[in-house]
Amino acid sequence: xxESVLNIEDLTVALxxxxxxxxxxxxxxxxxxxxxxxxxxxxxxxxxxxxxxxILGLLPKPHxxxxxxxxxxxxxxxxxxxxxxxxxxxxxxxAMIFQEPMTALSPLMKVGRQIDEVLxxxxxxxxxxxxxRVLELIQDVQLPDPPRIIDSYPHQLSGGQRQRIxxxxxxxxxxxxxxxxxxxxxxxxxxxxxxxxxxxxLQRAHGTSLLFITHDFGVVAEIADRVVVMRHGEVxxxxxxxxxxxxPRADYTKALIAAVxxxxxxxxxxxxxxxxxxxxxxxxxxVTAGGFGKAARHVKAVDxxxxxxxxxxxLALxxxxxxxxxSLARCIVGLEVPEAGEILLDGERISGLNxxxxxxxxxxxxxxxxxxxxxLNPRQRVGDIIAIxxxxxxxxxxxxxxxxxxxxxxxxxxxxxxxxxxxxFSGGQRQRIGIARALAVKPKLIVADEPVSALDVSVQKQxxxxxxxxxxxxxxxxLFITHDxxxxxxxxxxIAIMQRxxxxxxxxxxxxxxxxxxxxxxxxxxxxxxxxxxxxxA
Amino acid sequence: MxxxxxxFLSNPRVVIGLGWLALVLxxxxxxxxxxxxxxxxxxxxxxxxPSSSFxxxxxxxxxxxxxxxxxxxxxxxxxxxxxxxxxVAFGTLVGAVAGYxxxxxxxxxxxxxxxxxxxxxxxxxxVLIAVLSPSATNLVIAISVVSWPPITRVVRAEVLSxxxxxxxxxxxxxxxxDRAILLTQVLPxxxxxxxxxxxxxxxxxILVESALSxxxxxxxxxxxxxxxxxxxxxxxxxxxxxxxxxxxxxxxTVLSINLVGEGLNDALNPRLADx
Lengths: 538, 275
Description:
The complex is a heterodimer.
Chain A: E1 4-14, E2 23-33, E3 37-41, H1 48-56, E4 65-73, E5 76-77, H2 83-89, E6 94-97, H3 101-104, H4 111-122, H5 127-140, H6 146-150, H7 159-171, E7 177-181, H8 189-206, E8 209-214, H9 217-223, E9 226-231, E10 234-240, H10 241-246, H11 251-259, E11 275-288, E12 297-310, E13 314-318, H12 325-332, E14 340-345, E15 348-349, H13 355-358, E16 365-368, H14 382-392, H15 397-410, H16 427-439, E17 445-449, H17 457-474, E18 477-482, H18 485-491, E19 494-499, E20 502-508, H19 509-514, H20 519-527, H21 531-537
Parallel strand pairs in A: 3-8, 3-9, 6-7, 7-8, 13-18, 13-19, 16-17, 17-18
Antiparallel strand pairs in A: 1-2, 1-4, 4-5, 9-10, 11-12, 11-14, 14-15, 19-20
Helix pairs in contact in A: 4-5, 4-7, 5-7, 7-8, 8-20, 11-17, 14-15, 14-16, 15-16, 16-17
Chain B: H1 4-9, H2 12-29, H3 31-34, H4 65-101, H5 103-118, H6 121-132, H7 136-163, H8 166-174, H9 178-186, H10 191-214, H11 225-232, H12 241-268, H13 270-274
Helix pairs in contact in B: 2-4, 2-12, 4-5, 4-7, 4-10, 5-7, 6-7, 7-10, 8-9, 10-11, 10-12, 11-12
């Protein structure tokens, strides 16, 4: 490394006494060279974000504080600087890009003014010169029609546009170092691909160094020059991107990379006759109430969608946010009432039924939810959570509890877990409980709405394997909703791609991957982060 | 992470508040044992200053102020607690139904709540007592009728946020009926703010009860703190203790309840208290 911009030496950040481990970051050393992109990868709780915050002096006081080591930037140890000196440095020489652009921007201020403010605070430029610079910056981040953009409020822009604004703010003062904490995690894949491309381009053009914090090895493969792998607050491995991605040395890195879902399509078993689920011309419109002179807004979430799902087969419904994939799933499990079209389960019409009429069918269709933290009632014991479905179907309490214990061991938890409360479990374990709950009534069809998107990769892999195994054991059909083509490919033999409420393409996974016909499918495949690297591994 | 009780009891303000409340509670429960005589009985000359024979003196008719204070604690606490329980029960019912079912039901119930909220509550209580005639039961009714709307609002807001959580949807998918979902899934998760609001409501109820008794609208033939202040107010310059003693009792009790209520809030929402 020629000239390093930032050097972290033996950094240790202590956690408060009531935490489960002593330090969030322990003895971490790393350097970032001039014009270099260093990716810090790790799962949740690895201390990667805390390290990023420590550099900027943004640790939540008084609970977290750096207790050892040095962070050397411009020849000064940042840990010893006063608040005033840090304030001058932040935004000026070091800038930060956050994960959620909506919360990083003030909702009450026009975005142009927000960029302008950075310049006003840190430079002596006059208003006209500042305005010129703001326009340049907006052009730099490739936003269309800069004069209109600077006059917009954050809520008038899309997620990707907002993130571009945040990047423009970070670039405003030509910082030597930008710290980006999961800057693309909240974005759709296609937007993520554009933002990554933009960041790389700008970083090259300005010669800025970039510390990029992420959990996604695909993103690392897209952007990194060097990679630092963290776990439990310690650096497990660091090296150039090629070294770490293609020839990882640490076992933990190897396991993480193995857990990244590949792009190898799952092949179809022999075709099964007789569809289990048929959806015909389904329509669902959401109406947002108007008022104060605004007309009511109609959003067609699901627009004449038809699909079929065979017995014991699985279909992945892939789409970006707002594509209507979740609305479709909610219509199928009866959480939403579609206004047109029909849903048939084993040839019986289940759409148009009310809650009471639907009850007997509940034992056939169950759902696995996305958020393992919100989907379990915090005030019920795990056993009761699982036993509820069978008890409603008329199974006695003792019987249901016995079955719940059996299910818990089936999904890889101890039977004693039945007597504990959800908060005692980790995210992955909770998702297993959610799966056990769905299986408790021995359904024929499981609708899984993004069941792994809230989980770390290694946990994600285990849960996907579990789902796979259970599918065979219980002879389940599965409708798998996801935004991630990589996950879809590993789980399902059929894929339907949804965009703006319409299924634009569907067919066997292998065929769609080999020969995508619709331009949107192509752009989705194109946008998979690190696809070349993933393919080279397979 | 410390447990709820550790967090709750390690707060010195909570300990002070609980200490005073426990004392008042013990006195209220054992009033008949501690002071077996009728508190309205004339025991000595009027206007005896606080002394060793009468710790808190006697009032204008020669009644023992200490005995009045003890029996008054019983009346005041009983009425306040019962009124609060009634208000919480009714408010929770209305709020839960409004929040959970939404739509027209919500509109109707919330307009009704607003109707009760917009009437100045103390005046409304006076009117109710005047119509119903003063008695302990009617005091409970009047106080709960004027204090349920805030409970309804708290419960409705909580239900609105809890019902959109995924575990409620999971219960719908499992086929649970609306009533079962409301009782087993939603309401248990609204408990913490409800407990906090409810505990603070006891303090308000004590104040309303005392104010009504002060105006002579309290339960007849039952000693209460408000009545004592009302009866002693004309002798404020000659016999300061007649008003001051029950006044301080009310002040300390209401203050203690507020301390405990805030302590509950901090202990139930540790993140808010901590960060």
